[in-house]
Each structure stands twice: as structure tokens, then as C-alpha cells.
Amino acid sequence: MIAVLACALAGGALAQQQPSSAGIYTCIDSKGRRITSDRPIMECLDREQRELGKTGVTRRVVPPSYTAEERAKLDAQRRAEEEVQARIAEEKRRDRALLVRYPNQSVHDKERSEALAQIDEVVDAVIRREQSLAKQRAEIDTELEFYQGDVNKAPSWLKRKLEDNQSQTQIQKRFLDDQAQEKKRINARFDEELAKLRQLWRALGSASNTR
After folding, report:
1. What is the rounded distance in angstroms from the CA atom of residue 166 to the CA atom of residue 172?
2. Alpha carbons 31 and 106: distance in angstroms, whole number
3. Is residue 96 located within the same domain as residue 190?
4. What is the Cα–Cα distance from 130 to 137, expressed in whole angstroms?
5. Is this prediction's pTM over 0.70?
6. Cα gap 134→24, rounded to integer Å
7. Each residue's pLDDT tens digit in the chain (211 positions)?
8. Are 154 and 147 within 8 A, CB to CB?
């Protein structure tokens, strides 16, 4: 019994002293950084890597797997793939946010109506301003009749009043044009969102039906 126990203890000690089959890889990459990993290091495929044992002794030197040019191509391909995956992830995030914000079309239609109503309020205010300016211009024209309608004969205060009226009228016209363009942009955005949402709603409905 003593002999058997001694053999068992000796065997256990020997097993603890033997290094595990998994090595540690280390290298210095192209940026001068020392990297250590439990598997071959992607950043050092174009240069030597050392596989170390558990005690830190070099087991073997792993030769370069790729040239620097090949490695650069691989890095470029990896970055391109990461960018594609990032875009896909961002698109999914936007889709989820869109579904949370607009669970159905009535909610989307309501927000479109509210956005357009705000533009209409601004347009109404501009139209009222245009009407006021038109009334003021009629008064100016009446005063100009005393000078046979010749602006050059009118006093400077009346000329300034006319110039200001003309300038304000042009500003209001440009502002109305801007609001019309803004209305088109709003409708285009909501149309684009609605087309996307219809796809998402259909996909969501199909997924629910398959459960």
C-alpha cells in the first residue's frame, strides 16, 4: 500500500511539472508593440512569432505566414469587412429605433401632419405680413400721386419708405419659397420612412405569424 501511494504521488508531481500542450505566442508587431496571446497572432502574420512553454522557454519560432504586402491586403480586406458589418449594425439599430418610434402608420401619419402644420403656421404668418406690406404699398402709391408717380420727385423719407417696402416684400417672397421647399423635404423624408417602415412592419408581422 505504501509503495502504491508513493507511485501515485510521484506520478502526480511529474504531471504538474510537464508543460501543457497549449503554448503562448509572442511577437512585436509593425507598430513596435509586444503582443502575447494563447494562439497565433494575426497582427504578426508577416513576421516571426515565438511559441513559449509554460515556463517561458521558447518551444519554437513560427515563421511569417504572409509577406508585408499580403498582410497589408489582408488588413485592408478586414477593415472593409468591419466597415460593412458596422454599417449593417447601424442600419439595424436605426430600424429598431424607427419601429419603436412608429409602431404603426397612424402614428407616422400623425407626426407628418404635425410637421406640415408647423410649416403652414409659418406660411400663414408670412401671408399676413405680405398683406400688410401690400396695404402699405397702396398707401405709398397714393402719396406718390402728389408727385405724378415720379419717385425721383418724392421726398427722401417717402423714397426710403418705398425701398423698405419693396425689400420686405422680396424677403417675404423668398421666405415663402423656402417654406415650400421645406414642405417638399418633409414629405420626401416621411415618404422614404414610410416605404422603409412598411417593409419592417411586414417583416415583423411575418415573424410573429411563424411563432
Report:
1. 10
2. 56
3. no
4. 10
5. no
6. 86
7. 333 333 333 333 333 333 445 689 999 988 899 999 999 888 888 889 999 988 889 999 998 887 778 778 888 888 999 999 999 999 999 999 999 999 999 999 999 999 999 999 999 999 999 999 999 999 999 999 988 878 899 999 999 999 999 999 999 999 999 999 999 999 999 999 999 999 999 988 776 666 6
8. yes
Residues 36 and 24: beta-carbon distance below 8 Å:
yes
Please name the residue that has the C-alpha cell 460593412. Answer: 84
Give the residue numbers spanning the domain of 29.
Answer: 23-65
Q: State whether 108 and 97 are in the same domain.
A: no
**How many folded domains does the chain comprise?**
3
Same-domain status, 113 and 194: yes
Let me know if residue 16 belongs to a domain. Answer: no
Closest listed residue to residue 171, CA positions, set 133, 120, 210, 117: 133
In a domain, 83, yes or no: yes
C-alpha cell at 171: 424677403
Residue 135 shares a structural domain with residue 41: no
Residue type for position 183: K
CA-to-CA distance for 42 and 74, rounded, in angstroms? 10
80 and 169 housed in the same domain: no
Terminal-residue alpha carbon distance, the chain: 64
Task: Please say whether the beta carbons of 203 and 167 come within 8 A.
Answer: no
